[in-house]
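so i finally got all the pieces together for this one. its three components total, 279 residues if u count the protein bits. some of the lines might not be protein, just check the labels. i wanna see the whole assembly predicted at once instead of chain by chain like last time, that was a mess tbh
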Amino acid sequence: MPEGPEIRRAADRLAEAVAGRPLVRAWFAFPALKHHEAGLVGRRIESITPRGKALLTRFDHGWTLYSHNQLYGTWKIAAAGERPATTRSLRVALDTADRSILLYSASDVSMWPSSTVDSHPFLAALGPDVLEPGLDAREVESRLGSPRFRGRALGSLLLDQRFLAGMGNYLRSEVLFDAGLHPARRPRDLDDGERGRLAGSLLAIPRLSYHTRGIAPADRMRDDYLGDAADAFRFQVFGREGQPCPACGSAIARIDAASRRLYLCPRCQPADRAAAAPR
DNA sequence: CTTTAAACCTGCTGGC
DNA sequence: TGCCAGCAGGTTTAAA
């Protein structure tokens, strides 16, 4: 159950475990992918890289595995040939001589010629990856001001993968809190300072989550959980309904936005300037 | 156009 | 223990 930072960390771990090594076996649960198994033996994994919340596993014979974990998929690394006992359904197994990588529960998996994988319907529509190192505030502000996005409510825009790929539901709450903006605000109604703050938060919060890992200890969401490291990422508002805002002490509220739960501080993120005149 | 609601994928937890 | 309802960090599709 991942967002961009969790997917990128998974890609890092998987690549470290198996990239460059030849496969001794490949296995897919999907009937449509069975015919790829034999051809993968002896091939090497060139790279494993994220695109938003999708993962691309590139092989050296010109094919790329596309996978999307949606809510429930998860990758595991195991000793070579090992299949740890679990209640989850194994969907993909790639074995090298000393390590195996296993994908469980995901249903959105397909093989593409590497040269055409970018035309995958999901990938083709994605905006820039919010965690891409080259992404800067100037580009984020430019997207906020573009006709496609400037009229959208932030609560919906921040989940739209066409705006910034890799954003997700916990990041949405955390970014809006960090920027001090209510989800009903719209880019076109923000003043320059607010727009700059939002761009800064959109860059900083996902990076903080990616680099430090970790979540609120009481929370159940523990995919790739770092633990209690002092610098681990902690939710400021997500999942903290009724608890005091870390900035002002007001009770954090939970609302519905775009049919998903969103947490905010009513005092730090006031809605009443939603209709404020431009500039 | 934007927004909302429902459906679907699957796994886990809490309650009876 | 067993079953079921409800919920979940996502996405797509249809409808409003």
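The longest strand of chain A covers residues 45-51.
Residues 192-212 of chain A form the longest helix (21 residues).
anyway lmk what u think
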